[in-house]
Specification:
The complex is a heterodimer. Chain A is mostly helical. Chain A is about 75% helix and about 5% strand. Chain B has helices at about 1-25, 30-55, 85-110, 115-135, 140-155, 165-195, 200-205, 225-240, 245-250, 255-265, 270-275, 280-285, 285-305, 315-335, 335-365, 380-395, 415-430, 430-460, 470-475, 480-505, 510, 530-535, 550-575, 580-585, 590-595, 600-630, 635-650, 655-675, and strands at about 65-70, 75-80, 215, 220, 400, 410. In chain B, strands 1-2 form a two-stranded antiparallel sheet. In chain B, strands 3-4 form a two-stranded antiparallel ribbon. In chain B, strands 5-6 form a two-stranded antiparallel ribbon. Chain B is globular. The chains are: A mainly alpha, B mainly alpha. Chains A and B meet through α1, α4, α5, α6 and α7 of A and β1, α5, α6, β3 and α26 of B.
Amino acid sequence: MFDDVPILSIITFIPLIVALFLIFITHISGEDALEQLEKNAPRVALIVTTVVFILSLLLVLNFDPSTADYQFTETFTWIGGGIEYRMGVDGISMLFVVLTAFLTLLCIFASQSSIKSRMIEYMVAFLILETFMIGVFCALDLILFYLFFEAVLIPMFIIIGVWGGKNRVYASYKFFLYTLLGSVLMLAAVLWIYGYAAQEFDRPTTNIETLSNELDLPVGAQTWLWLAFFASFAVKMPMWPVHTWLPDAHVEAPTAGSVILAGILLKLGGYGFLRFSVPMFPDASVSLAPLIFWMSIIAIIYTSLVAYRQKDIKKLIAYSSVAHMGFVTMGIFVVNMQGIQGAIFQMLSHGLISAALFFCVGVIYDRMHTRDIAFYGGLVKAMPVYAFFMMLFTMANVGLPGTSGFIGEILTMIGAFQYNSWIAAGAATGMILSAVYALHLYRAVIFGEQSNDKLDNIEDMKRHEIAVLASLAVMVIVLGVYPSLITDITAVSVENLINRFNVATGQE
Amino acid sequence: MLMLLYKIIVFAPLLGCLITGFLGRRIGDKPSMTIATGLLFLSAILSWVAFFDIYNNKGIEPTVNLFRWMDVGGLTANWALKIDMLTGVMLVVVTTVSALVHLYSWGYMENDPGKPRFFAYLSLFTFAMLMLVTADNFIQLFFGWEGVGLASYLLIGFWYKKPSANAAAIKAFVTNRVGDVGFALGVMAVFFIFGSVNFDTVFATLADNSDRIVSFVGMEINAVELIAFLLFVGAMGKSAQFILHVWLPDAMEGPTPVSALIHAATMVTAGVFLVCRVFPIYEMAPVTAGFITVIGAFTALFAATVALVQNDIKRVIAYSTCSQLGYMFFAAGVGAYSAAMFHLFTHAFFKALLFLGAGSVIHALHHEQDMRKMGGTWKVIPLTYMAMIVGTLALTGVGFPGIPGVVDVKFGFAGFHSKDLVIESAYAAGTSAGVFAFWAGVIAALMTSFYSWRLIFMTFHGRHRVKKEVINHARESPGVMLIPLFILSIGAMAAGSVFHDGFVGEGAADFWRHALPADMHADPAPIHPYAAVGADHVDDAHGGGHHDFPLWVLWAPVLVSALGFITAWFMYIRNDGTQRRIASEGGPLYRFLLNKWYIDELYDATVVRATRWLGDLFWKRGDKGLIDRFGPDGIGKAAMAGARRLSGLQSGYLYHYAFVMLLGLAVIIALVFGTSGG
């Protein structure tokens, strides 16, 4: 169907083109037209993101899950010097494209009513963000990947800085500082690889496929490169102890910003580990895996405990995200089928669940303009529909079987157990702690006597809010009951990754 | 056709849950209650059909495969309904009690505004429980396992305005989660050792792996023992065994029908069911089996001591449940799985009866639960009183065990048949754990009788201690509540004698088929070490082997039961006021028991406080004090000043940013190109 069409580029760049077009029109429009545009911009963005989402679904339908090869590939000469514009997806990246398209669509849809100022700019920022995010997952060239990977932060930085809360300056500063540090190290590593590959192959190349399949890096160099990439990915995950930017960023970000941050941006790190660290630096991935495991287990236990003591709903969920990402890093580096499949599943599932939880927070924030847990209480009486959704996503967050949250956790733990029972046992304590903080939050906000007068006239969810959460709820349940929708697509690529890894590390 | 039968049994409650849950407020209370109850009765009737069908279709033990659930690198698990007699027994227990509880709730919850929600939760629970008992693999079992936990959480906290109910709900969920960690690790270990999570595949390769030693968190352990132990930790949580029992008494915060269904008859027995379902594993894990025996016996004893002095009518029954679950476990621990299941089966009837009866009392007395404020009510609520008497006779195991060689008949209430058998099988085990369990069982039976009759006397007999205005309005509960009491009373009277032969008697082999070992002690080629010892005592093939026990063993439970009755009679009828004297003088032992051995206080002082303290420590000292202080905040004033300058930009329009952004990209490209070109 997409044989002669550069479909990935189309999906990736449609939002950017429309965004640039919107900027252009804003420039040449007069006062009246601008007002008109302010009204129409959300609609335009909605149409664009819908088109992108439909295209991404068509892409999955045309995706051949029986091969580990990259599909829908496009190659154009670009900067030169071996650097190409190369796009393609495999089983690992395919579904992240869909998730990105889906969540961006929901964000645009949900923002129609909750954003009051600078509507055009807001839509533009989200469209640009979408382009960069999809670009990250499609890029098959190291430099191209790097550009998308870093560029993603700029619109996100702006979204927090412009539409954020009171402390947005501190939050964006912290966010920026952490990621900058990681980026610089990763850039250095990228450049080193570029130089080394040019020597090895007698021609410069930044083709990811070539680099991961054919480039044999010396063990010593692998360690340094691994650490440099790790610096960048660990910040993005975020892993303990470089996680403290996340709660602040979430608290200050507008709802849709939090959704994208938790839903997609946190997955870039895990995707990076899978795409680069494991295949390109296999020996280092073996020797440094214990570091990852320690950090993962600490993340799960430490941040769950911290989450329990939070007074701000968003901070609580943000810390919970860090804990859930601990399962991902743990699953990736045990490098077996259950571990990696589970890690990918966990990322996709957490993308849906955390997005839903942040939308949930958005619902009451839009009404009461506070995220203070103590402010709320007894919402179930006035907002039964809301209470239902919140319960469903709380349970999904806790990893109740039947929801997608369970599949990712149990698979990664089963994978980890085969590697080392200590790790699995450490992660399993997260099952208790997640119940502690999640039910604590639910009780404080939803149950109990409604004692705050200000909540007397709070309205239950509106139809468009229900639509957003219901679509996520359906996904969470469907994937929990029939996870093969994901695992069938990822299986062959993951198997291929593991096989190559085992060959490279001499385990087979 | 048959397959459809099982699908209807399992999914009718789910349908009921979805309809009442989502449409309840639209279609109204009555229609949604009718739908939920009707579907549950359909499920219950079909369960009995299935029960007899399984019994008659000997040898046919099908598995209904629904669809694939997980298929990840050799880890496969289907959504499936495994049909054998173990499932069959659980199907009838769960659906029958659930259907009756649905009906009963029409009366009990009459004035509650949240009726559709309540019925939706009840049906949800039933569905999850049915998924648990029909699982053919560990993962689906875990689905049901946690699903019933969710339903239990929702129902304990049903009256969400009560802080105590919310606290109890969370306590139940979190304590169960502690057990579930064990269960989950057990499942991981199962897959690690056997490469499968399917029961049949695991059991088939069990013998090959019986000597495998694995390393688990630094210990070298026999693999099968490890799995057996981890799974039992899960069972301890769900079935409220000692150290993880703390949630069950608090769970009484939920409406009483819930206590009857979930916290007495069905969910809390899931742990016993689990041990029986995977009995081949326990057959090969003698150490863990011994551990189960000890924990079960200790819980039977411990919970009974606490029940002696409680004043809340529901708490007495709750501790009684905890204690009876202990009996089931030590039976399973000594390898008498069929006796454990038999006691599970009869207990479901008489304990549900006792709870629903207690509910009827509470309903009549305007939600009064304190027995000190009851008394002399039997004339007001005579039918409830009779039901409670039947339940008590069944629980205390009243019956005639026969005299070997002289009078070869035995008859009695349901609990008599099963509990005596449980106690006898502990005796027959002949191990030190078995001896402990035997004596614990006998002493607990004494206490069971005492606290049960104490409950009856305090509630129904003696002086009125009820407030005037309450007793004047008190009247017998409506028919919808009495019919379930009546049906359960029949069960409490007859379930023991009718089913004795099938569960544990001569027909046991035909009854259980492959689901459970029929002969508890007479296995000619015992794999189980206890069974080997037990075999010495039993030379015929009779499951129970009553004839070979010394007379005193047969009569001990019945006699202590009588003793308990007499003691209670003396203290609460003959010398009315003993209770108050004990309570006011309050010796240290009394206070120790009244405060449930101070275990809640212990947990509060240690685990709960430590969790809060660590959370605060990591947050305030860790994140803020260390990471942020030396990380981003510590980068220095210069950087902050830079950030402030940066923030000045934030008032501009987006295209300014876009410009900066493009500029940034250009710089990066130039950097890359410059380096690579050179």
